[in-house]
Hints:
Blueprint: E1 9-10, E2 13-14, E3 22-23, E4 39-41, E5 50-57, E6 65-73, E7 79-80, E8 90-91, E9 113-122, H1 134-141, E10 145-155
Amino acid sequence: MTGHDQRMEEMTLRSAAFADHTLMPSEYSHDSGDLSPPLEWSPAPEEVVELALACEDPDAPTGTFAHWLLAGIDPATTGLDTGERPAEAAAGRNDYGAEGYGGPKPPAGDGPHRYFFRLYGLSEPSGLRDGFTAEDLRDALQERIVAAGTLVGTFAR
């Protein structure tokens, strides 16, 4: 997917609110006001000029659902506090139709859904602006990813 001959570097992505592949606290859900969870990650490799972040639910009944899209994050950044949007970052439009974070809201009675938080280190600027879509982000990632990390949270109602 990167189009680079070099190996992609792994970045560690974690949250103080939940461990990888464990239940996300309800305070980060759509029903509780769409407060994004705190995230922290390892420093970006030197060649990274921009970070991008996505949170998607591949278990949604209508197909992969975009919950959070950010681009243009300063590569010196090593985390986000609860509810934080970096001033320099562009907020994409989630599949609820709003810019910024839209928390989990799987159908009641469904088993736990998985929420993939993915951090990308880009070798070139994405050029994305507020309101971009998940498809815009996928297009912008092509041949630019030099580092990445993933954290998976689960949630059920």
